[in-house]
Amino acid sequence: MIGICDKLKVSVIDLGFNSLKLVTYGVRDDKSFFVIEQRSVSARLGEGMKEGGYLQLEPMQRTIEGLELFKEIIDSESIKHFLPIATSAVREAQNRDEFVKQIRRETGFAFRVLSEKEEAYYSYAGAFRSIFEPNVFFFDLGGGSLEMVRTLNFRIRKATSLPLGALRLTQMFANRKGLYSKKNYSKMRKYIEGMIPDSKVLSLKQEKTALIGVGGSVRALASFDQEMRDYPLNKVHRYTILKEDLEFIQTELVESKLSEISKFDAIGEERARTITAGATVIDVIMEKLAFKELVVSTQGLRDGILAAYLADPTAYHAGNPADVRKLIKPREINPLQFSSSLVSSLLSYELIDQKEFAILRVAGSHILSGLPPYRPYALFHILMDEDANMSHESQLEMSLSIVRMLRPKASEWLYSKYRSMISRPQDKNRIKRITSLLRLAILIEKTHSKVKVYRHDGSVIAEVIPAFERKQSFPIELYRLAIRDVSSMLDIIVKLRDKDSDLEELIQLREES
């Protein structure tokens, strides 16, 4: 839902095996949140650390310097709430306690070191905010570890962490230039295959299960796939990578030099060294567990940590954050209160499908919360930039429908720009249908009118009954236009009546359009 509230800002500092990140969020009154600013430092804290070993001096110094930069940012922005967390590198180090104390002494940040299970749980909780799937195999691929969560009917059944991070594997199997001999690459792949549990251990049965991935390597591979396909949207969240496409990318990476990989904009010089190992981990997961596609999430651990903090700040600082099961509880959001019966009835009578039903509710939520006063093109990009709980195609259709309500000509131009994603005639008709229903639904919401929907003589009839106290300013002409628009798109009769019969029937659908 669009809308900005600057009452509360919270920063999450994430100290990982490979990178150090600062993400500052704005928090709305309903405890939903959005990213204001992101910073990343390639501290590579886990560099040179053997299994069960010690953090090295140079990586520790890079980390301290990065944290000093973050402290300046937090102080300059007057951010009073910040949540520092550390994961695999600090968690596994023999000198973790000394380093955590050093960080607090030199920067003032008191880091909370997450356990393997906490990291897996909160990463999944963060992704769940915008991908509400009941049956999921979720993974978070970081620099030092791979967290995996298996859910069934929205309940976590299994969670585990493995030392299969992209930087860790690169240090183990690649040479100093970041390249792999055929022998070492084969060893790495077999090592990964031996570590990943099989379907039986993970209780992956025949029910439909979505594979959802989080992490820098996942995002880079998605961007690379989009680059190769000339994908029209600049959007990674909820992008789908097919197994055969990932296999092609992986082969290209293995056969390429580091200098060649770093030239790809989607990967860049910083991630070029570790992306081959990351792609191999994902490929093995998909092959061993028989997944044909991967859904990418841009939300994960940091979002989950913030959600836990907002659920109960006192408990979080006491080291007892909110129960993850509460954070992943599916929630029903229905912004269409007065027009809900209309939209639900249209679905039950099969005049709209499930996809249109979902789009109408999300679009209604945006409009009723107050759209920002931008021109249609800017508004379109704001709507598309949100990490919505829908496919790219659905989000595109929703955004075009809202723009079409405001400026039909602008929607036509945008439609032609993204024609490759909505090229079928039924897709364009869907946008027109959603727009017409949305216009009527919003009128019903704003006038607090009641709606009765029923069948009569083979026709579906919807009676809109205005609220008595709003009669004097009732927008009759707006209703007339909205009903005529709906009449041209759906096989339904709409009647506008006064509940006390003081007004004669004004319009009946199937009037001459």
Please outline the helices and strands.
Layout: E1 8-15, E2 20-27, E3 33-41, H1 57-76, E4 81-86, H2 88-92, H3 96-107, E5 112-113, H4 116-128, E6 136-141, E7 146-152, E8 155-162, H5 166-173, H6 182-195, E9 210-214, H7 216-229, E10 240-242, H8 243-255, H9 258-261, H10 268-272, H11 275-288, E11 293-296, H12 301-311, H13 313-317, H14 324-327, H15 340-348, H16 354-369, H17 376-385, H18 392-406, H19 408-417, H20 425-447, E12 450-456, E13 459-465, H21 476-487, E14 493-496
Parallel strand pairs: 1-4, 4-5, 6-9, 9-11, 13-14
Antiparallel strand pairs: 1-2, 2-3, 6-7, 7-8, 10-11, 12-13
Architecture overview:
With 513 residues, the chain is an alpha/beta fold. The protein has three domains: 8-113, 2-Layer Sandwich (Nucleotidyltransferase, domain 5), CATH 3.30.420; 117-296, Exopolyphosphatase. Domain 2 (Nucleotidyltransferase, domain 5, 2-Layer Sandwich); 340-496, Hypothetical protein af1432 (Orthogonal Bundle), CATH 1.10.3210.10. It has 21 helices and 14 strands. It has helices spanning 57-76, 88-92, 96-107, 116-128, 166-173, 182-195, 216-229, 243-255, 258-261, 268-272, 275-288, 301-311, 313-317, 324-327, 340-348, 354-369, 376-385, 392-406, 408-417, 425-447, 476-487, and strands spanning 8-15, 20-27, 33-41, 81-86, 112-113, 136-141, 146-152, 155-162, 210-214, 240-242, 293-296, 450-456, 459-465, 493-496. The strands form three sheets. A six-stranded mixed β-sheet has the order 8-7-6-9-11-10, with helices on both faces. Strands 3-2-1-4-5 form a five-stranded mixed β-sheet, with helices on both faces. The chain has a three-stranded mixed β-sheet with strand order 12-13-14. A hairpin with a 4-residue loop joins strand 1 and strand 2. Helix 8 (243-255) runs antiparallel to helix 11 (275-288), helix 16 (354-369) packs across helix 20 and helix 18 (392-406) packs antiparallel against helix 19 (408-417). The longest helix is centred in the last third of the chain and has 23 residues, at 425-447. The radius of gyration is 26 Å and the shape is globular. The model is unreliable at 1-6 and 499-513 (pLDDT under 50).
